[in-house]
Amino acid sequence: MTVSPSPLGRLRWTLADGMTLVGRELGRLRQAPGQIIGLLVFPAVMVLLFGYVFGSAIRVPGGDYREYLMPGLFAMVTFTAPQGVMVRMAGDASRGVMDRFRSMPTARLAVPFGQTGSDVLAGLLLVAIMAGAGLLVGWQPHRGLALTVQAFLLIVVLRYALSWAGVYLGLLTKDEQTANNLAPLFLPVTMISSAFVPTGGMPGWLRFLADWNPVSALTAALRDLFGNPGGSAGSTAWPIEHPVAAVLLWSAVLLVVFVPLSVRTYRRWGR
Amino acid sequence: MTDPIVVAEGLHKSFGTTQALRGLDLSVPKGTVCGVLGPNGAGKTTAVRILATLSDPDAGHARVAGYDVVREAGRVREKIGLAGQYAAVDEVLTGRSNLRMFGRLYHLSRHEAHRRADELLERFGLMEAADRQVAGYSGGMRRRLDLITCLILRPEVLFLDEPTTGLDPRSRGEIWESIRELVADGTTVLLTTQYLDEADHLADDIAVIDHGRVIATGPPEELKATIGDRLDVTLADPAALGSAVTVLSSLAGTEPTTADSVRLSVPLPGSGFRLAEIVRELDRAGVAAADVSLRRPTLDEVFLRLTGPSDQKEHVR
């Protein structure tokens, strides 16, 4: 439809425009110092809250609850990623900003790529702070640098895939208020999992849900890669037995489903 | 007469069972302001969205700046600016960073985007507020920022969808001023509005839309002439109301409307009436008038006549 010089030129502009929109999100952060503080403090508070409040009462096989908890917290913040993207997409849609982008010679895909790209940057920052807080309360990776890096890469991959679900949901809700109201619904999804407590004590049906919840797969993968207690050992559910493969598979499925859906919805927006 | 820079032919668009456009034709000569008037739901916004490549017509076609809005949408986007009914800018960012971001998205170099942002802020009086968050701007300032965002690439055609809706009269005046300046630079403007005085002030030509079709086009003065002059009479004595109604009815061919017991108003067919004649007729019937005036109809009256529920709709041209 768009008469562009070449596929290569188009790709170049998609990347350049995507970077401009990543810059936009960074600029927004700079304008809202409160948000930065929230972004920085939130992960640290989570570590302290869960680590000491739950940690005082919960006993897990393999010892220290905070060692057990950290991978679960990493998984939780990863799965709440789509809500931010969803709210921002819906905000642009309801305020006419999306129409402006679409009436400009800006690359069609730059908007979703910019949103998901900037979300990955935000995610890296979040995870770094959380890891720092974790180290302070006694958590640590035990299996060397290579596996630790792999663990963080796994977080980034899944977060990126999830943010595309956020793009689609934002385009679907079209309205910032609705998106804001839907956002808290992501939390329960993270709770029905092995992120905070072992699934062994759950009733059968709930345990089934929890074992197949991708949050559990990521949690188990991180526990294995960091050498923290409560990983894949002893589970008979496939995603928990092969957590790294399960996370990669989940990411692939999310991307295969939501990238085309989002791109199609964005292209056909308001037509 | 220059070639039209915006041409729409037979545009149709439906949303579900609602027909928003049913064969809309429009032609805007280069360098002019075309005011599109119509009641709510007449199809104004739908027409603008199609011309600005945001929406595809179900049937018919349109060309803007020489390019087809569907097949050559990318080319069209390089030539146009669009300001919708909202101030479509990032409210968290400052005015300056908004302009810089949109400049980059228009594919200007970083340097050029910065330069152009400053130039526009300076020219349209937003320099003082340049580094403040848009969320803190007044309604008028937001709209002005929205408007100048469209100007980054010096568009050939500017689409303004109700650019002053919800603004106070002073801000509206400022937006009008900005639009006039643009036209002086040679930009063609297509503007939709619900304010008839806005169209009267700004537009060279007016297209009245109703039920998805253009029902009248022409310069404001020409449109006013088509519905004839209007006669207003104020009586010295309410007792003469009955005879006054009789005289005016026979003159105009239609019943006059009465605002109260002494003021009557009636549209005259055509503009061949002379005031002296009318006064003489009233005199003969023994009606003492405190005031008799013959005036051009306002655009509001033209609009109401054209789009009103009566079946007296006239097709001009």
UniProtKB/TrEMBL annotation, chain A:
InterPro entries: ABC2_TM, ABC2_TM_bact-type, ABC_2_transport, Nod_factor_ABC_transporter. The keyword RNA-binding does not apply. It is found in: Cell membrane; Membrane. One of its GO terms (molecular function) is ABC-type transporter activity. One of its GO terms (biological process) is response to antibiotic. Keywords: Antibiotic resistance, Cell membrane, Membrane, Transmembrane, Transmembrane helix, Transport. Its main location: membrane. The chain crosses the membrane at residues 36-58, 70-90, 120-139, 151-173, 185-206, 244-263. It comes from the Bacteria. The keyword Transmembrane helix applies. It is a multi-pass membrane protein. This is Transport permease protein. It comes from Actinoplanes auranticolor.
From TrEMBL, chain B:
Its main location: membrane. It is found in: Cell membrane. It holds the Pfam family ABC_tran. SUPFAM superfamilies: P-loop containing nucleoside triphosphate hydrolases (SSF52540). Residues 6-236 form the ABC transporter domain. One of its GO terms (cellular component) is plasma membrane. GO terms for biological process: daunorubicin transport; doxorubicin transport; response to antibiotic. GO terms for molecular function: ATP binding; ATP hydrolysis activity. Belongs to the ABC transporter superfamily. Drug exporter-1 (DrugE1) (TC 3.A.1.105) family. This is Daunorubicin resistance protein DrrA family ABC transporter ATP-binding protein. It comes from Actinoplanes auranticolor.
